[in-house]
Amino acid sequence: MILTDNETKVDLLNNEAIAATIIKLLRDRPDQPVTVGVHGDWGAGKSSVLEMIEAGFEGEAKVLCLKFNGWRFQGFEDAKIALIEGIVTGLIEKRPALTAAGETVKDVFRRIDWLKVAKKAGGLAFTAFTGIPTPDQIQTIVGTLEGFLANPAKLATKDNLEAAVEGVKGLLKPKGEGDSTNVPEEINAFRKAFDDLLDKAGVEQLVVLIDDLDRCLPDTAIETLEAVRLFVFTSRTAFVVAADEAMIEYAVRKHFPYLPDTTGPQTYARNYLEKLIQVPFRIPALGDTETRIYVTLLLVGAELGDNDEAFNALIKVARERLKRPWTSGALDAVTVRTALGSKASRANNALALSDQIGPILASGTKGNPRQIKRFLNTLVLRQRTAEARGFGDDVKLPVLAKLMLAERFLPRLFDQIAAAAAAAANGKCPDLSALEAAATAKDDAKTAAKPEKAAAKGDDAVKSTESALLSEWLSSPAIKAWAAVPTAIGGEDLRPYLFVAKDRKDYFGAASVLGHLATVVEQLFGGKFAVQGLEADLRRLATPEAAQIFEAVRGRIVGGDSFDTEPPGAAGLAVLVKAHPTLQANLVDFLEALPRDRLGPWVCGGWEGVLKDGDATQRFDRLLQTWGKEGGAMLKAAAMGVLRTRQGVR
After folding, report:
1. pLDDT tens digits, one per residue of 425-443
2. CB–CB of 494/428 below 8 Å?
3. Cα–Cα dist 395/49, whole Å
4. Are 505 and 518 in contact (CB under 8 A)?
5. N or C: which terminal CB in the chain sees fewer CB atoms within 10 Å?
């Protein structure tokens, strides 16, 4: 069961309502030009809406739908011309009657040829027409016209240049027309020629669907939009553009870098988009109920198939609930069994999984359908990997799903759980059981009547080796929400699950070397206040153990390769060195090895109570002087400021 990430005409999101609204809008004004925007985040379902619009116009002889993928124009030198030619070519291919309208077709292509040359000549209407051009201008023009001259080197004399210009004019000038050197006139002529082409084709409305524009490079995106603008005032032509507005605004800013940022209350980028897109539609993110319904439909559909009658009956029931998700609930077991009939037993896993992961999946993905699909695909692939390796019975799908929710949306929590479980002899994380118990405890009258007992239990947790970690977890609402997911995993041997997650990180390598110290390493990556409370416990470590932990923390910080702001673990190193002063030289070695060109000002402070040894402080002073000369502007200023302060104190 693998969920495809392609656009689909099978509507599991109730986006058909958006498609139907757009179709009605286009049908109500077929003779008027209009541009419609289908907006939404990456993976929100924009492509599927375009598929539904195309399907909605099938069978209508007077309406022609052409679909273009902006991403496919990426390799073209001029995406604008590629789209214009694509529209004209698509029209001719789908309307065989145009083969008899030879002169009309030729006229349109002459206009396109003119646009090509105008583009190559710098966007002007042939400076060559008003005087003798430079050889470079002629070379550019000739290069765009296939087969015009085999040897451009012959264009060396004034006579030859004039002959070349006349030849170009002859190629571009339609029969019976006077010379046209004005860009607006040529564009209007193109629009008229294109309108004649629609007449000859018997097309009352041309609907052009443009997809994946937000995946394009800025220049390609803007050129495609410029091509759309060329048609905006061409009657009977409608464009439906699917794109994330934020990405298009980014493309406008990159393509026009010298424009001011704002104009009144709006940005130029926003104005550009709003002038082009007359009617915007935004696909809303899925909420909790909608996500749970979507997950259920995805999993049942993968099991039964999109064309299964029972599955389509379930879709109808789901759509009714999706009409008013604020009053209706998710697809419960009774509803699913009634809709699926004899095939209901095959949907049991889908229902259970949807109930278990739906709420947090909705929050973590922000209701993004593509992210939901990717999560479910990874879940299924990992389970199959376990089966193929021979330990499938050791991997329970709900447990794997809950762990993957942490891996995807709470990666730091996942790392902490994984490190503790990999280091434990039984593969369990004791703090995890305590976290789940605290997160699922009901705040009823019985609990409220015994506050002293609850406080005592909390105090006991603080006294344990993992108390700082558990305290950190309990302070996070997101972690507590994750822990409250019905499946309890604190009592499970998590090693099989970590093994199938090795595509992300191998936790067993670190655990085999560090053993019980792996938990301490994880604690040192906590917040500043959390790690400060570890100093007393760290002093009890043997010197070789402290050195081993230092190297593990240092390696993870360096591996993170981000030094513009203080990286996680830096505060932990400071506390560790403070507890074990013999590591001061190791700390200075670490600081000296950091890349100066990418180092933020954080590195200059915070070591006053840590570096006390004379040799270590002298080395740090020399390092500050080096940063003050060779670092970035902010690092230089911070280093010199710390040096002045230290010298003043002395």
Report:
1. 788 888 899 999 998 885 4
2. yes
3. 37
4. no
5. C
